[in-house]
Design goal:
By secondary structure, this protein is mostly helical. The protein is built from 1 helix and no strands. The chain crosses the membrane at residues 6-28, 35-68.
């Protein structure tokens, strides 16, 4: 009877430890995925802002050159 109780307790502890380890691994994976998504979004936003600024600068330069050449 005591052996059965000890075996059940040991199995319960092992299962609990395995569940905790699996949950920690899942949390780590989720955190890594969230960090990667945030970095990708930030990079995309920075690239879009840089492209918009470059386009605006090019348009302004072209307009100034056209105005200077025409006038």
């Amino acid at each position: 009877m005591v052996v059965v109780v000890v075996v059940v307790f040991v199995v319960a502890v092992v299962v609990a430890v395995l569940v905790v380890v699996i949950m920690i691994k899942i949390i780590i994976v989720v955190v890594v995925v969230v960090v990667v998504v945030v970095v990708v979004v930030v990079v995309v936003v920075v690239v879009v802002v840089v492209v918009v600024v470059v386009v605006v600068v090019v348009v302004v330069v072209v307009v100034v050159v056209v105005v200077v050449v025409v006038v």
